[in-house]
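Limitations
The structure tokens in this dataset are predictions for the assembled complex, not deposited experimental models. Users should treat interface geometry with appropriate caution, especially where small molecules or nucleic acid strands are included. An illustrative entry is reproduced here so readers can see what is and is not provided.
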Amino acid sequence: MRKDETAAVSRDRCQSGQLGGLSDHELMALLGDGCREALAELVRRHQGAVLSLARRFLGRDELAEDVCQEAFVRVFQQAGRYRPTASFSTWLYRIVSNLCWDQRRRAARAPAALEHDAPDEAPEPSVAGQRDELRQRVRQAVAALPDRQRLALVMHRFCGMGHSEIAAATGWSPKAVESCLTRAYATLRRQLADLEQS
Amino acid sequence: MKHVSETELIKLVADELEPERRRLIEQHLADCAQCRESWRRQQAVWEALGAWDEATEQRDLWQQIETRLGRPSGGTGQPRILRLSRAARLAAAVALGVGLGYGAGRMAAQQPPPTASVEEAASEALGLGVLAEDSPAGLFDALVGLTEAQGGES
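Predicted assembly:
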């Protein structure tokens, strides 16, 4: 298909809203041509994962939503320079990672903002209550990790990213990622050891 | 096979290993109680982390994102200059002060020289005006008298 034919098909897709079957790379190409509907589709696909990462790392819902919105604004702004050399999600997580670090630096200048959202109310003594207690324990243990370890752990456990993907998204060396993960998991094993016994 | 490294234990539990490597490690775990215990603890942490489900409402943020796209990035509605960091504002103030000072100095250097002659200025500075003939202090006449007296004695 000639280039002008490809462009015509893209415009038709954009105008008709038939974007669901396109890959992330194809959507980015459309976005680079000015199709905002492509961005809407990317948001629909990835906002859950982005929010999940930001919430678990930052510990505050409003900050996480701010990071999520800003991340997709930057996707829009950088669409013209996007090159499909790696997966779109890795590129997106790099943006999210940088924004999360910015938030942490800002929060470091305002100590009150470092506090994570208050935990849920005391769990009831039932199966559901025990699960709530476990969730709180885990949440607190992860929140207590140093920033780099927490980010690596959240990306690994909750975003399904492998070591090399985490390295690509954060800009850290593979060795640094390994170190962060082994330390994070070792800390959590110590802190959650009593859960195994119970 | 030596004991399984922490990194490979993590990868094993996360299902990141190549099939052949996984098979070799699982074979080792069957024979090594120490590694088997380490694997069990890592598995327990992995599952405990799975209990942390962020089951919050899945808000659709597209509307807010579209609103932001209508403003400058990270926009708060403020003009861009007001969103400079404190350090940037301080640097701008210093640069402005230096620039104003330099400009004032250049303007002063370009002003015309005083109209009074150098001699008159020196005389004024040394207070010689009181010795002048037309000085109201009258010291000129006294000096003349003194000079004539000295001339008479020699």
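Some entries come with short summary sentences. For this one: Chain A has two domains: 1-115, 124-198.
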